[in-house]
Amino acid sequence: MIRLERRPTPSRFWSAAAPILAVALTLVVGALMFAALGKDPFEALRAIFWDPVFGEFAFYFRGQLLVKAGPLILIAVGLALGFRAGIWNIGAEGQYIVGALAGAAAGLAFYPSDSWLIFPLMVACGALGGFLWAMIPALLKVTLGVNEILVSLMLVYVAERSLLASAAVGWLRNPDTVGFPGSRNLSRWEASANPELIAGTGAHWGVAAALIAVIFAHVLLTRHLTGFHIRLTGAAPRAARFAGVVPGRLVIFCMGFSGALAGLAGLFEATGPAGQISIDFASGYGFTAIIVAFLGRLNPLGIVAAGLLMAVTYVGGDNAATNLGLPAAAISAFQGMLLFFLLAVDVLTNFRLRAGKGVTA
Amino acid sequence: MKLRTLLAGAMALGLATGAQAQDDPVKVGFIYVGPVGDGGWTYQHDQGRLAVEEEFGDKVETVYQESVPEGADAERAITQMALQGADIIFTTSFGFMEATNAVAAKFPDVKFEHATGFMREHPNVSTYDARFYEGRAVLGTIAGHLTETNKIGYIGSFPIPENIQGINAAYLHARKVNPEVEMVVTWAYTWFDPAKEADAARAMIDQGVDVILQHTDSTAPQAAAQEANENGGRVFTFGQASDMEAFKPLPRVASIIDNWAPYYIERVGAVMDGTWEQQATWAGIAGGEVEIGEITDAVPADVKAEAEELIAAMADGNYHPFTGPINKQDGSVWLEEGETPDDGELASMDFYVEGISGGIPN
């Protein structure tokens, strides 16, 4: 009989090895699934992992990797701070939407001005929108002790179903089109456009912001008192109180910071790759970023690697879907396996496997 | 822009190799908004793709990508198809409009065909659409006869002209045969979401709606009606986009079928013999793009005959579903006696006709 025994302290080895083993398991089981679907598994894995980075059209795909990874990393870095302190912002998707709406609305209020101030204003409002949307669960948690997981998650649906839907068909709709949903094209209006900073690289302001956020979070966690408080609260909440951590303030900080970053990601997406606020603007980045945060071990530098890996599965997954005729569901299942195996293998970080009968405690 | 230069370079390379191998099959790409197994809209486009394969055999190669979101990802999916050598790409949802035009600018030698849109910014972009409202007129006629509660429901996808045309056409023709009829409209804000569509259908049934039309792509409303009927209900539905024959003879009593195959074959053929030109197509029952699926025996024979007469009149071009006098919802005159709207007016329809209650979300 095999049983699990809790480790006295989490294993550093398994904490680092778990993502690698999870990726390996995903590759093996994914290959089996592709084979079961009647496709050459090596072809499929090559189309997903090799082609986007080194294949014939890598010059295009590499840029697309940054386009995909940028918002994922930006959101995940913010989430990771809270997750490390045991503050669970699950609603980044909603903050992403509200940030984009707030930023787009602020900019469009001045349409068709061509002032250079418009884009910075939109960026500020994007961050503010995400921040304020995250403040709802944060303040409810601090004042009334309401569970932030539920509130932040529910607010995703409020943002998506009512705010985004009404914006796209109503108050933000492009008045120059006849009844069609969607805002003006922000990427074609020079004052609001978020173009590639270096042509062909896919790197727009959102990617730059993600880089800055990663460095900021890394320094915060390793060099700053707030970062110490975050780590301490996650590791030993009671000890943290004795060390002078004010839990409420930490909740406000972590929720607000992650909300602002998610809002920024939304704004940069709306003004760049997406180009407009449309009904389908919510693309799930806010949820995928949760996977990215955990895959990156809640470590800013790890998140960069995880974000790029996730981007490869998206871009390469699309590539495999067209080239090999793989069903879209197979690609989603493949991505899902990654999280599934990570969670499964992660058990080894906190528990060890023991053979034989356990001593009843 | 450097990216454009790169892409143009890749294009030139593609052309050069293409010229060397003249016998290469024409590569035809399809971008789908839902899964090919949705049993409705996307399924029907995929039937068109298969018809192209059947027609041209070895001379074509088709590729498709399903479940492409109508957002930032669409542009990548289309670009990728063009990079990989597609000669003509059909983008089969309204929301792919801007992405299609953006990619078309970078690949001037690839032909793009965008379904249900109106934007043709480049000479290599055509648009095509079907006059679904003609089919709705037929379904409305049947619905007006079948309803006992005098409440017919319409599950709309988005409040865009295509849906509003359908709602107005269905209502006008239901009212023509049943002046008491009332139209209940629910907006799902999605093209394909079985859970939401089923919820919308159940909510309607709870309100006493007994005939449901849908402008969304899944069979979930059909299943919801079937479930209600198993529990003693009396609810009728119509297949949408595809025949949805699995729900015959009840609740599905007829269907509106999008038949894209002839158009796809014609356009791919035009690429093959080099005669492809930009155009905007809007065909209906007369052109064969809109078909009415089998009207089952659950519909009384005289109603069926009346529906068939209406179909024939539209096929001959003798009847326009919007023929005056028709007033707008606010009572103002839209069409005078005998007047019909032009296509521009239809394509921008943003009002309900008189008699429909409730507003269009705006």
Automatic annotation (TrEMBL), chain A:
It holds the Pfam family BPD_transp_2. The chain crosses the membrane at residues 12-37, 57-82, 94-111, 117-140, 149-172, 202-221, 242-268, 274-294, 301-317, 329-348. This is ABC-type uncharacterized transport system, permease component. Its main location: membrane. InterPro entries: ABC_transp_permease (IPR001851). The keyword Aminoacyl-tRNA synthetase does not apply. It is a multi-pass membrane protein. Keywords: Cell membrane, Membrane, Transmembrane, Transmembrane helix. It is found in: Cell membrane. It comes from Jannaschia rubra. The keyword Transmembrane helix applies. One of its GO terms (molecular function) is transmembrane transporter activity. GO terms for cellular component: plasma membrane.
Automatic annotation (TrEMBL), chain B:
It comes from the Bacteria. Keywords: Signal. SUPFAM superfamilies: Periplasmic binding protein-like I. One of its GO terms (cellular component) is plasma membrane. Residues 26-299 form the ABC transporter substrate-binding protein PnrA-like domain. It holds the Pfam family Bmp. Residues 1-21 form the signal peptide. InterPro entries: ABC-Purine-Binding, Peripla_BP_I, PnrA-like. The keyword Signal applies. PANTHER family: ABC TRANSPORTER SUBSTRATE-BINDING PROTEIN. This is Purine-binding protein. It comes from Jannaschia rubra.
